[in-house]
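Problem statement: downstream parser choked on a complex file, so we are re-checking the raw output for the 5-amino-5-deoxy-1-O-phosphono-D-mannitol run. The parser issue turned out to be on our end (a line-ending mismatch), but while we're here, posting the original submission so the record is complete.
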Amino acid sequence: MCGIVAYVGDKNAYPILINGLKRLEYRGYDSAGVALINSGALNVYKCQGKVSDLEAHTDGKDKAGTIGIGHTRWATHGPPNDVNAHPHRSSSGDLVLIHNGIIENYAPLKEELKHRGHTFKSDTDTEVLVNLIDDVQRTEGVDLAEAVRLALESVVGAYAIVVLDRKEPDVMVAARKSSPLVIGIGENGEHFLASDATPIVEHTKNVVYMDDGDLAIIDRHKGLKIRNIKNQEKTPFIHELEMHLEALEKGGYDHFMLKEIFEQPRSIHDSMRGRLNLAKGEVVMGGIKDYEQKFVNAKRIIIVGCGTSWHAGLVGEYLFEEIARIPVEVEYASEFRYRNPIIGEDDIVIAISQSGETADTLAAIELAKSRGATIFGVCNVVGSSIARVTHAGAYTHAGPEIGVASTKAFTAQVTVLTLLALAIGQKKGTLTGSRFYRLLNELEAIPAKVEKLLKNEAQIKYIADIYKDASNALYLGRGFTFPVALEGALKLKEISYIHAEGYPAAEMKHGPIALIDEEMPVFVIATKGASYEKVVSNIQEVKARKGKIIAIVTEGDTVVKGLADHVIEIPATEDPLVPLLSVVPLQLISYHIAVMRGCNVDQPRNLAKSVTVE
Ligand code: M6R
């Protein structure tokens, strides 16, 4: 939530900041701003709206300066407007700051600062922080870096900040606690700072991921220094980015979401690469090497995540119980962290997160860790906070996901969970050899089957056109496809603003059936498999109440075809792998409905890609 970008070097900072903000806009897009220091002047430009609005706002203004900071906001304190937009300036006018996170004790700090003569223009916690740093700097007579360090001692909350001081025009100071910051090390002493590597990769592949409690001081002449919370100097560890610029572009598609849906044959394949070895008949998950016995002996697995990642976790529950015979509990990270859960040293907690930065998931991990559990991360973003705080893990390798609605991240998460369940099942001997090989073979065939079903786009678009004006929709699935029903409903509501609910198909009779009338589209995953006949009966129940059925069926199905208003065929596969195929038409139908309704598909209202506040 909120995107931060900063630059110091010998180039003009403004275009670098604007370009960086465009890359980060998926993290928040209600307002944007930049601050630049040039020849002793500190210029701040900010406004409500998108980065493109900011560009229009700065047209014709003085944008010179080789040091600057930029921000794109997802509002927490105060509505999205020009005044609450970042950067925020201290009331003395000397300091300017951008912030991602929440300062929890901002109210008492603000009162105290008011008594000390500071004035405030905005409703934000950020303006309190910049004045606090200014106050400390003046009272203690210290430089910017030390003022930031001392001020942060009084702060409760989460933050990633970058601060500039008009009086020290060659210095940039950054700090992080529970919100990510990456430093890019360019040529000729230039440095970049950002919430993630996407604005950095086009300038340099050399990055340093800041740890919680780190303070980074970047001096145009003296380079980068990192101090920890105890003011001890740390040697920065330089990583080489594997990200490619093309992955951050739309590549000819109208939206990132569509591109990411169509990338799934490749992203699923990438999630399996080097892990699934058909020739040897084995699954190799490097991430569990040191914890293999723990998994094999586990009495219980707890899966934590939020949103789409939680849905992937639900598929994981079915997978681990069926394939590896380990009992699983799936928890919303936000509930788990606050309800004093029973966790012990024998428990394995799997934390799932695309961004690797979700605040609730991070807090759930810390809690489980403090109780001695082994934590396994399933993350997409390399070097993210969750990837670094877990004991072990597996990256999903889906590549950058820019569309706010998760698509390829979900299928990659499910692929990794399938591989994990198969690896453990094989070690435990909970699967017959033939079933294991069948699943392995089928898993390897999934990318080609996704490729094939994506060819149905025209038909899916046709169905989208029929239901684009619906006010409500129901999604039904059973067994492995129940979580897919939840995910299908989430996709529709978050990008098209149509109210949608997912249910286990049989549960419909216990309440939601009351909603069904001739206006209600009901999306049913009715593929051939263990629950097929039961789902067919559920379809009959909907039809008897005149609901409109859009069914996802196995190729060649004739029974459901005779009942449903529309059928979308997907290739046949094993039950545990059906989520990887059946979710794709639901993603596409949501996408097309949202486009037809004129919605901003990649940046839906009120949402942000990476939820770094609780
Ligand atoms: O980055 P994470 O996977 O931890 O994010 C969790 C949710 O915010 C996320 O899955 C969200 O529900 C999706 N973007 C919705 O499509």
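For whoever reads this later: The mean pLDDT is 94.
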